[in-house]
Amino acid sequence: MDIPKRIKERLIQSLKKFQPIIESAKNRDINESDTVTITTDMLGDMFGYDKYSEITSEYAIRGTYCDLAVKLDGKISVLIEVKAIGIELKDNHLKQVVDYAANDGVEWVILTNVQEWHVYRILFKRPIEHEHILYFNILNLNPKNESHLEMLFLLTRDAIRKSALEDFHTQKQATNKFCLAAIILSDPVLVSIRREVRRVSPGVQIQIEDIKTILESEVFKREISGGEEFQEATKNVKRLIKKAQREKETAKAKQEKTITTSETTPFSGEMMMSQPDDQSDESHGNT
């Protein structure tokens, strides 16, 4: 992930600045209001939001209030629930901010006590679901560690506006155990496996369904290939395979059309090339 130089420098300096502040706040066990203050300062100084126009405190949603909201281009992009630095973040805190987001149609939420940061994506299904995307502990981050800076970058104003968090989520989905299992159990891969089995063991007769059954029952854990997440990943993989096939067919059709067009071009070119010769002969005859 490429982080613009100016943003990387800001993240490094801000991390050095806020780590001792947060450490001191933790030792003093500050209250929630003071924790919100530090969080707001971080959103401005570290993550690059305008504290006066893009960060809203006590954001009202159907009669209840979320601690902070990030507003970009006139639209709420992220809801942030802040707890006091000494409070352990729990599921009931998460439920609160997820409910806020679901009621207001906001896709991204953050649960934090300013030391620990959890980022979730809201899945607008029935019932509403959420997916844990990112976690980091500010006090454990090293300003010299590139991967640590990349985690921080995902929450910056520039990253949110450019959908970097969305891209990170897509990449994470593509490499999780359920997606990888679905890819391995897809028809193109099963065909390749059967071909390799026949290559290393000539004469062995095995069908694709047999390979699939063995992988599901003996290679993968039941928790991977038997749950809803695997079924969802399988649907996505099949959809992407079909999409890739359509794109391949479209590209092939365009290529064939180009070849067909180019085959007619030389004839036209010859006609055009012969014209000067005719004109030359006529000119010579007139002389």
- The end-to-end distance, rounded to whole angstroms, is 73 Å
- State Rg: 29 Å
Principal-axes geometry comes out as elongated
Helicity range of the residues? 55-70%
Structural class: alpha+beta
Secondary-structure element series: HHEEEHEEEHHHHHHHH
- As laid out across the biggest beta sheet, the strand order is 1-2-3-4-5-6
Kindly state the mean pLDDT as a whole number? 83
Q: In what range is the share of β-strand residues?
A: 15-25%
Number of strands: 6
User: Would you identify the regions where 5 or more consecutive residues have pLDDT less than 50?
Assistant: 267-287
Summarize the topology.
Elements: H1 5-28, H2 32-45, E1 55-61, E2 64-72, E3 75-82, H3 91-104, E4 108-112, E5 116-123, E6 129-137, H4 146-153, H5 157-161, H6 164-174, H7 177-184, H8 187-200, H9 208-219, H10 222-225, H11 228-286
Parallel strand pairs: 3-4
Antiparallel strand pairs: 1-2, 2-3, 4-5, 5-6
Describe this entry's structure for a reader.
The protein is of the alpha+beta class and 287 residues long. Helix content is 60%, strand content 16%. It is built from eleven helices and six strands. The chain has helices spanning 5-28, 32-45, 91-104, 146-153, 157-161, 164-174, 177-184, 187-200, 208-219, 222-225, 228-286; strands spanning 55-61, 64-72, 75-82, 108-112, 116-123, 129-137. It has a six-stranded mixed sheet with strand order 1-2-3-4-5-6, sandwiched between helices. The radius of gyration is 29 Å and the shape is elongated.
